[in-house]
Amino acid sequence: MAKKKQADSNIAAENRKARFNYEIVDTLEAGLVLTGTEVKSLREGKASIAEAYATEEQGELWLINSNLPEYLQANRFNHNPKRRRKLLVHRTQLNKLAGAVQRDGMTLVPLKIYFDDRGMAKMELAVAKGKNAPDKRQTIKERDWNRQKQRILKEG
C-alpha cells in the first residue's frame, strides 16, 4: 500500500509512542469524516491520538478514543471532543484490515493525522502487532547505540 510523503508542517497530530509500543507491519492512508469545528481544531494542532485505535464495525472503519478539543470560537455549534470518527478506506483495504485483525491478532493504530496538498485531513493508519517487554528493551538498546554511534562519528 503506497503512500505519499507529506511535509512535516502539515502534521496536525502524531502518535509518537506507537512505534515503541507496536511492531508496525503495514501502513495505509485513510480519509477522515470531520465536522467544520473539528477541522478548525485540528488546524490549531491540539489533537491527541496517543490512546486512539481503529476498529471495523458493520462494514465501516471507525476511529475510537481520539481527542480533538473543542474549537473555542464555535460557541454552541461545537463538537464532542471524544466522539467516534468514521475513516474512509476502499472496500478491499477494509476487508484486508479486518482479516488481519481477526486472524492474526493485529491492531489498527493511528500514526499521524495530517493535511494533504488539497487541504484534506488524512490519517496514516498502521497494522501493528504489540511488543512485549523484551522487545521494547531491545528497541531502547538499539536507539541508544545509534545515538552513541552518531556522537562518536561527530567527534571524529
Question: Would you write up a description of this structure?
Answer:
- Belongs to the SmpB family.
- The chain is an alpha+beta fold.
- The chain is 32% helix and 31% strand.
- The protein is built from four helices and seven strands; from the N terminus they run βαβαβββαββα.
- The protein has helices at 18-21, 36-44, 91-104, 133-155, and strands at residues 11-14, 22-32, 53-57, 60-64, 85-88, 107-115, 121-130.
- A seven-stranded antiparallel beta sheet has the order 1-6-7-2-5-4-3.
- A hairpin with a 2-residue loop joins strand 3 (53-57) and strand 4 (60-64).
- The protein starts with 10 loop residues before the first strand and ends with a helix.
- 26% of the residues are buried.
Structural class: alpha+beta
Query: What percentage of residues falls in helices of 4 or more residues?
Result: 25-40%
Mean pLDDT over all positions: 83
| Uncertain segments | none
Radius of gyration of CA atoms, rounded to a whole number: 18 Å
Biased composition (Basic and acidic residues): 132-156
Family: Belongs to the SmpB family.
Organism: Jiella mangrovi
Keywords: Cytoplasm, RNA-binding
